[in-house]
Amino acid sequence: MIVKSNTIKNIFTSLILQLVIVVCGFIVPKLIIENFGSAVNGLISSINQFLSYIILLESGIGPVIKATLYKPIVMKDKKEIENILGASERFFKKISYIFLFYIFILCVFYPLILQNEFNIWFTISLLIIISISTFSEYYFGMTYRLYLQSEQKTYVISSIQILTTILNTLIIILLIQFKFNIQMIKLISAFIFVLRPLLQNLYVKKRYNINLKNIDKNYKLNKKWDALAQHVAAVIHENTDIAVLTFLSTMQEVSVYSVYNLIVKGVKNLAQSFTGGIDALFGNMLAKNEKENLNKSFNFYELFYFNITTIIFGCTLILIRPFINVYTQGIVDVNYNRPLFGLLLILAEFFWCIRQPYNDLTKAAGHFKETMKGAWVEAFLNLFISIILVFKFGIIGVAIGTLIAMIIRTFEFVYHTSKYILNRNIWMSLKKIGVILIELVFLYFINTLIFKQNLVSTYVELIIYAICVFFISFIIVLSFNLIVYKKDLKNMIDYIKNDKELL
Fold first, then answer.
1. Taking CA 149 as the corner, what is the angle to CA 219 and CA 74, rounded to the nearest 5 degrees?
2. Which of 294, 326, 375, 482 is least enclosed, having the fewest CB within 10 Å?
3. CB 503 within 8 A of CB 7
C-alpha cells in the first residue's frame, strides 16, 4: 500500500531526524557556553525566540493549506493544487517582506533592553545574521514544505534536514577549533540552513511538474482567520517563557531555561517523530469519508503513541537531573541544577504530547473555528500566570504557567475530537490518559528506588544508566498494556496482519 509505505518512511526518517537534532542540539550549545559563556548562549536563545514570532504573521495558514490540499490531491486535480500553492506562495512572500520590517524594529529596540549586558552592535549583528535562515524558509520553501506534508512525503523534508543539521554541526565544531568569533560562526551556519528551502523548492517543481505561471491570481484560501487562534496559542506556548525571562530576569536564567528546554524539546520531538505525516493520513480518510476506518486507525494510533510518549517522558523524568550534572560539568557562571524546574517543564511538554493525536485530527478535519475559544484561553492563561509568578518564583513560575495552560487545552482537544469528529464516548480517551499518568508515577518511583542518580558522573555511566532505565520503563508499560488493553492489542495485531491501511 502506498499510504502505508509513505507513513512508515515518514515515521522512520522523522525518528532519525529527531535523534540527529537531539545529538547535534546538545553539542552546539555546550560548545557555545564553554567558549563564549552562558550569557551569549542565552542571548542566542532569546533572539531565536523573538525571531520565531514571525509565525504569528503566518496566521495559522499552514494547517489551512494542508487541509485544503487533501481533497484535490486525492482527486488528482492538478489545476486546483496549483491554485492553492500559488495563493500560498503569494502569502508567504508577503510575510517575508513584513519580516524584514520586523527585523528593523528589533534592531532598533531589542539591543536597548540588553545594553547593560552586551554591546549594542554585537547584539544587532547577531540578530541580523540569525534572521537569514528564517527569512529564506518563508520566502523560498514554506509552500513546498506544506505540499510535501500533504502528499504524505514528510520523509523528503526530514532527509534534507538530517543532512543540513549534521553539516552545520561539523562546520561549527571546526570553526570553534579555529577560534572564529560567534558572528562568523552563526553567519556560515545561516547559509547552510538556506539550503533547506531551496532543495525543497527544487524537488517539488521537478518531481510534480508544478507550474505556477498560469494560476488564478484571485484564488482565496478559506478558514484562514479561523486558524489564527490556533496559531497564536502555539506561538505563545513555544515562546512565552523565554520572552518573560528576557524582560523580567537575566540572560543567565534564559540560558538555564534554554538548556533544559533543549532536552525537553528534543524528547518532545522524538515522541512526535512517531506521528510523521499522520495528519495527512487522517486527512486522506476524511476526504474519502472513511469514518469506520478512521475510528479504528485513530484508536490504535492513540494507544501506540501514548505508550511511546509515556516511556520517553518517564525516562526523561529520571534522567534529566544526572544528564544536567554531566552536561554542565565545569560551568560555574550560573547554577544549572534546578530539579523542580525540570520536573515542571517535563510535565508541561508531556501534556502537550498527549494532545498531539487530537490536535492532528482537528487540523486534518479543518476544525479551526470550532476550537478557537480554547486556543485563546490557553494563550492568555500561559502569559498571565507566567508574568504573575515570575516575580516570586522566577524560572519555576513560568514553568507553572505553561503546565496549567497545557493541561486545560489538552482536555479541550480530547472533548472536541471525541464528540464532533470521532463521535465516540470521551471516556475512551480519558481512560487512556488516566492509565498513562499512573504509569508515569510507577516509572518514576520504581526507577528511583532501583537506581541511584548521584553515582552518574560521566557520559558512559549516563548511557548505561539510560539503557537500564529504559528497559525497566518498557517492562512496566508493557505490563500495564497486557493487563488493561489486552483486547485492543490483539485487535491491533490482527488489523496489521490483514494488511489494512492502519499506517
1. 65
2. 482
3. yes
CA distance 184 to 45: 17
For 206-230, the three-class secondary structure string (H helix, E strand, C coil) is HHHCCCCCCCCCCCCCCCCCCCHHH
Give Cα separations from 161 to 130, 180, 331, 430 (angstroms). 17, 25, 31, 36
First-to-last alpha carbon distance for the chain, in angstroms, is: 9
Distance CA 110, CA 112 (A): 5
Distance CA 92, CA 196 (A): 16
Residue count of the chain? 503
Amino acid at 96: S
Cell 537569514 sits at which residue?
132
Phi and psi angles of residue 9, each rounded to the nearest 5 degrees, phi first:
-65, -40
pLDDT per residue over 191-245, tens digit each? Answer: 998 888 889 888 888 888 887 777 877 777 665 555 555 666 666 666 778 778 8
Q: How far apart are CA 348 and CA 154, in angstroms?
A: 27
List of residues 6+ apart from 409 with CB closer than 8 A: 233, 355, 374, 375, 377, 378
The grid cell for 186 is 552563526
C-alpha cell recorded at residue 310: 509515556
**Contact of 226 with 68, CB cutoff 8 Å:** no
Q: Which amino acid is at 149?
A: Q
Q: What is the pLDDT of residues 12-60, one digit of tens each?
A: 888 888 889 888 888 888 898 889 888 888 888 888 878 877 665 555 6
Give the separation between CA 61 and CA 42, rounded to whole angstroms: 31
Report pLDDT for 1. Answer: 43
pTM score: 0.70
Determine contact, residues 79/214, Cβ cutoff 8 Å. Answer: no
The cell for 214 is 498560469
For residues 276 and 282, the answer to whether their CB atoms sit within 8 Å is no
Instruction: Count other C-beta atoms under 10 Å from residue 43's C-beta.
Output: 25
Cell of 49: 525566540
Q: What percent of the chain has pLDDT over 70?
A: 90
Set of cell numbers at residue 468 = 537500564
Tell me the H-state helices in 249-371: 251-272, 278-287, 291-327, 339-365
* CB environment 90-110: b (16+ within 10 A), e (fewer): ebbeebbeebeebbeebbeeb
